[in-house]
Amino acid sequence: MVLATIAILAGTLLPSDKIIPKKIWDYDKFGHFIMFAVWTFLYGLVLGVWKQKQPNLWVIFFWGSFYGILIEFLQFLLPTNRSPELLDFIADAIGSAFAILILKIIFRRSFTKPKEQTA
Asked: Domain residues of the chain, as ranges?
């Protein structure tokens, strides 16, 4: 989880011309989707395993989306030759929402008690 957080910060805040080849930028929004889907999924999984019950998925979605908007704000503030984009944030939020759907399926299967069979 910590490594994913650091990787996203580095990938979104370091000067783009120094860390990522130009050809990859054709898939920028897809990259945002994947990064935030993975981050949100890991965050939800860590909370679920730690609490041994399904965490509040709305809260997890909020934190994933908040992290995305925070990065766009930092891109605006920091002199890193990066520019904030609304479509990046939208891709971040959609990635977080996708992870929430996957977590919902996993938690439903993991934390739902089987119904007792009557004879």
From this structure: 2-11+24-106
Provide the whole-model pTM. 0.78
Q: Long-range contact list for 29-33, CB < 8 A, 24+ apart?
A: 29/87, 29/88, 29/91, 30/91, 32/68, 32/88, 32/91, 32/92, 32/95, 33/91, 33/92, 33/94, 33/95, 33/98
pLDDT above 80: residue 43: yes
DSSP per residue, 47-104: HHHHHTS---HHHHHHHHHHHHHHHHHHHHHS-SS----HHHHHHHHHHHHHHHHHHH
Q: CA-to-CA distance for 96 and 86, rounded, in angstroms?
A: 15
Would the pLDDT of 26 be above 70?
no
pLDDT band at 7 (very low <50, low <70, confident <90, very high): confident
**Cα(111)–Cα(66) distance, rounded to whole angstroms?**
27
Are 36 and 91 contacting, i.e. CB atoms less than 8 angstroms apart?
yes
